[in-house]
Amino acid sequence: MCLAGVSGMLLLSGCGTPEYRAERTQCEAEWMLKIPPVFRDERVTKHRSERRPTGETKCETTGATTLCQPVMETVSIPYTAIETVDIRKTQRDAQISACAARACTLKFGNGKCET
What we know:
Layout: E1 3-6, E2 9-12, H1 18-34, E3 39-62, E4 65-86, H2 89-108
Antiparallel strand pairs: 1-2, 3-4
């Protein structure tokens, strides 16, 4: 899906027809009132990349000069963070999608508002 969260509201970024985006915007406004956000801090595991030496060395000799460099690898490092999440987002997003599909079906005969 082409959605990105922005301050509790959803922003459509180039997905679907203009008609679908209009219907979805109306549904978002309706369902934000019916199922307002409830925010909670949750502990989540995230990952960051880090470059580390492998213990191997790669050497190149040019003429009388030998230049050696450590061989590096990228590793994923897990860490714990606290994120504020909307615990109703999944429930609300399902209602918004269904609402938009219903409106499109009524107006255009299909759930994507395609003409």
